[in-house]
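Dear colleagues,

As part of the handover before I leave the project, I'm documenting each prediction I ran so the next person doesn't have to rerun anything. This entry is a single chain, and its sequence is reproduced below.
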Amino acid sequence: MSTTTVAAPLTNSLTAGKLPKYTSLAVLGASWLVAAAVFLMLQLSGASKDFNLAGTLFFGTVLYCVAIYLLSYFVEGVRKAKDRLVTALVTAAFVVALLPLVSLVVTTLTNGLPAFLTPSFFTQSQRNIVGAGGGALHAVIGTLFITGLAGLISIPIGLLTAIYLTEYGRGRLARGITFFVDVMTGIPSIVAGLFAFALFSLLFNDPGIRFGFGGAIALSVLMIPVVVRSSEEMLKLVPNDLREAAYALGVPKWLTILKVVLPTSLAGIITGVMISISRVIGETAPLLIISGFTASMNYNLFSERMMTLPVFVYTQYANQGADAQAYLDRAWAGALTLILIVMVLNGVARLIAKLFSPKLGR
């Protein structure tokens, strides 16, 4: 009599007890839904006036961290559960860091679109407007003119200073320049405005001087150290082998910098320049001091007051008239315009960096 032995089914220890591929996303979505349901109940019960989107994302992500750890612990074991917990904590940190930005953009869009979409906002100034209507054309022109002139002043000075510190600078002079650049990086913006105001008041003997060129000088004081620091770090990343190869071929140092070092670091330099522009384009205090504010158009940087978008937002909010909502709508629309300008500039910078960066592939 023969007996038949049935072999036990083979199991792979590497895949056994493993959660499905999209479990993490499903648990995250379910956690957000649970948190949304809780806040919706609070809103319906009257405990909360509006639905709290930021709270939903935050507490939902915290719930996700706990849920994914427990689920992985019981299915996959302690080791994999710890790995998923750390991954979940990294995700939670990303969500928490992103919440203020998302909240800012959503709030600005919600409050700024009504005035932003009106045809007069980009075709009229605020001259003779005391209620609803008018626009921010004078502020947009002033921002572009003053920031553009500040860039024309700051970018060559900052880039040449960075080249000197990286390629030529040695000894006390280089250390002194580095020290003062570090000090200038931490200067409050209002100090830059007071410096420009004091400088031109003494030069022109006019204690009430206000003009756009002074605002450009104030912004340059804030912009130059950022350009120097960012450009210097990018130039330091260029391998010395490239410089030595050019020197071995008999290329002069200045031509090596122009043809080898700068093209190699161009993408990073452009990014640093855009960061510096983003740093100064929203400044209010220095422009309020030296450029002033006006409700009329002004295309002349060297004469009379010139309005800018940050000052426009401030004045619309601070000096509300009888129709307060119209002033608030224009303030939010000005803030939205400023955000869009920065986004466009960053997009253009990325495109330029991609087009002119060195091609490493064959």
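The CA atoms of residues 182 and 225 lie 7 Å apart. The mean pLDDT is 86.

All the best with the project,
I.
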